[in-house]
Design goal:
Strand content: under 5%
Number of helices: 28
InterPro entries: TCF25/Rqc1, TPR-like_helical_dom_sf
Strand order of the largest sheet: 1-2-3
Number of strands: 3
Structural class: mainly alpha
Protein name: Transcription factor 25 (basic helix-loop-helix)
Helix content: 55-70%
GO cellular component, one term: RQC complex
Length: 526
Amino acid sequence: MLAFMSMLFAPCGHQPTCQSPLFPLECVFSTGPHCHLCCHFLYFIRNLNPETELKRYFGARAVLGDQRPRQRNRQFHRSTWMTSPKDSWPRFSRPGISMTLLQSKDGIHYFTFEHSRDYQQIQFKFLDAVESMDPNNIVALLQLNPYHIDSLLQFSDVCRMQEDQEMARDFIGRALYSFECAVHPLFSLTSGTSRLDYLRPENRAFYLALYKHMMFLEKRGCPRTALEYCKLILSLDPDSDPLCMLLIIDFLMLRSREYESLLQLYQDWEEHRNLFQLPNFAFSTALCYFHLSQQEDMDPEESHKQRCKADQMLQNALIMFPGVLMPLLDLCSVQPDATVTSHAFFGPKSQIMQPPALTELTALYVGRTYNLWREAPVMLWLEESVKEVLRRVDAKDPIVDDCQDKRQQRYRSAPRNIHRHVLLSEIKEATSSLPLEVTTQPMMSFDPLAPISIVHTLALFFRSLMPNFNLQVTYRTQAAASTHRDSCKGPPFWSVISTATYECLLFPLICSTLFAPYTLFPQNGP
């Protein structure tokens, strides 16, 4: 256990390589090499505009349509990169959000968003509106404060549930516009050197707005633009990866046909992050090599080499994660051979015996990427690899038992950010595999699964009623747990001070609801 903790909280710049067979899954999302890092986050800012990608597909005339003749009638909007302001939007006035530079160290800039006193009052009203469970209250709040971030995010979800995708995208775009108008002059979208701490409540809405915008772009048929936003989110906190962008970046790279970029990312980070522990990277890198081997302009010898590498990696992935195969074939509407269904290695036991964390990861990967495996050449290649894997299993290949031991040791529990990613993905195959401690707790879409290092408002309030309560001891305990984080990202205790301020500001809300507990915890029945 001490070895695990030393690995988990190793100082930045001295990360251990993940060679131990017991290396925990958390390390995939808690440490990261600073070498080779920024090169993966460098891109042209024009790639953040989906029109750039759509013009490549359909041409500028089809994308722009009749926009140009109407330019002179537009109201003035500040020029931004992430979104294009619409004439239908309310006139913009600063909502009370600003960005502050906390520290610059080794070429990395650490920022945070801050809320003005007036914005905090609006935030209290928003929390009241959420507790009322009536969307009309959020609509009323937005009419008075059309650029309040959390209201825009919350009502975007309401519109999406009502299948009004256009309106849902519009609200997310308005939130991003409000954020971009507040960023610090040194905050860079493209250099990969700007950081935002997810532990700070004020910063989380920016992460969530970027994530939701990314998913809208992917569904709109702009995977390359979505990939750029994925890189942007990952660059904000690559060490902790609070939204687990490593679980989706491979999918977006495959959809964008960025095969070389995905393989380069895997090669640069595998030594430090053990990316092969993630089913998505194990299978996606194999799929990358296969697609490269199929390119017509490739030298035959090089093509053969790529195909051999693809075969080897896919077989290793199937041996390490046998529970992926049957759900994948089921979603692809493929009936497997009788020799496969009757074999114990790929049978129901392979899924039943999986640790819960691994079930969550495999369900997420299958539900997200099964369409990439439906192509006839890919399915034939998968069939050949499955037959070879069964041959190796029957031949008692020692790697089979070794992988079984690793599955039981490495995937006993999933980090909280993986659960958060699964909730945001809304992939039913994955959300159904979430543990009870996640599904039974109250969930707010504007702040899903808040970090556990944040003292919960109600818990802090009721603890304050105890005779031995000491607020300073409470925050010193939090500060000790985040010493490593603060040493890497900014001045000591900044995150704790910000959190303390934010929690104390919510105290009036607790008092107002103390005598109406049923408004805080709605009942499903009498």
